[in-house]
Design brief:
EC number: 5.3.1.35
Family: Belongs to the hyi family.
Strand order of the largest sheet: 1-2-3-4-5-6-7-8
Helix content: 25-40%
Strand content: 5-15%
Radius of gyration: 17 Å
Shape: globular
Order of helices and strands: EHEHEHEHEHEHHEHEH
Pfam family, one: AP_endonuc_2
GO molecular function, one term: isomerase activity
Organism: Dongia soli
Largest sheet: 8 strands, parallel, barrel
CATH superfamily: Divalent-metal-dependent TIM barrel enzymes
Bound molecules: the ligand O=C(O)C(=O)[C@@H](O)CO, magnesium ion
Length: 257
């Protein structure tokens, strides 16, 4: 059975952000991920990780002004300086948390514009080369447009093209099974084909994005496939609990017993 990381942006939201680390550890998790750490000091986060014996698996570069609709800058025209700033901003958090994987959001832009594809590629290569010196992977994640309208990276084929054009061993795919199912389906075959590119996996039930125990996907089967494909990383539990985080953890106990 794969190892699971609690996503503290979606789970344990009954607690204040810094208290979610202890709550996740008390619930049996040994690893966490979240979208953004930037509202808190790096040393505060590091303290919570070490006090609770947790591994930091992943977080994102800053998306910019989320409330104003910004979703990262990697593919956004005229925002190259802003993108580079997000890498600088992330560094104290990378060092403090010892995270090995960072997700760069593409932003909202037109994916059919070849100039933006070139810009995206250039920005990703620039950031990946810097992160490589610190032994950190940079990830890109196709996100379905129902959840994030207008998002640039909304297609697994485009992600594959970008990764192969970049040819950077530390630039990899964040395969969110929830988004894959909404975008294209054919999850097991895609996992098989894309496994050499995958740096991180996330899960949720489809279509409601609740626990992975209800809905159109058979996660028991998919976890078996992921093991069979020798995926050694964590799986991020990026779902919104139906009725309380702790109350909803029955699926994890059943799958891991
Ligand atoms: O929405 C998702 O799925 C993510 O993994 C986030 O990092 C991006 O919003
Ligand atoms: Mg995701």
């Amino acid at each position: 059975m794969p190892r699971f990381a609690a996503n503290l942006s979606m789970m344990f939201t009954e607690w204040a952000f810094l208290d979610r680390f202890a709550a996740a550890a008390d619930a049996g998790f040994t690893a966490v991920e979240y979208l953004f750490p930037y509202d808190h000091r790096p040393d505060e986060i590091a303290k919570r990780l070490s006090a609770n014996g947790l591994t930091q698996v992943l977080f994102n570069l800053s998306p910019g002004d989320w409330a104003a609709g910004e979703r990262g800058f990697a593919a956004c025209p005229g925002r190259q300086a802003a993108f580079r700033d997000t890498v600088a901003t992330a560094f104290p958090y990378i060092v403090a948390t010892n995270v090995r994987r960072i997700h760069a959001m593409s932003g909202c832009a037109d994916p059919t514009d070849p100039k933006l594809r070139d810009l995206y590629l250039e920005n990703l290569c620039w950031a990946a080369d810097i992160l490589a010196r610190h032994d950190v992977e940079l990830l890109i994640e196709p996100i379905n447009p129902r959840d994030m309208p207008g998002y640039f990276l909304r297609d697994f084929d485009l992600a594959g093209e970008i990764l192969s054009a970049a040819a950077r061993s530390n630039l990899r795919l964040q395969f969110d099974i929830y988004h894959r199912q909404v975008l294209r389906g054919d999850v097991a075959t895609a996992l098989r084909e894309l496994m050499p590119l995958i740096g991180h996996i996330q899960i949720a039930g489809v279509p409601q994005r609740h626990e992975p125990d209800l809905g159109e996907l058979n996660y028991a089967f998919l976890f078996g496939e992921i093991d069979r494909l020798n995926y050694l990383g964590f799986i991020g539990c990026e779902y919104r609990p139906r009725a309380g985080t702790i109350e909803g953890l029955g699926w994890l106990r059943r799958m891991t017993r």
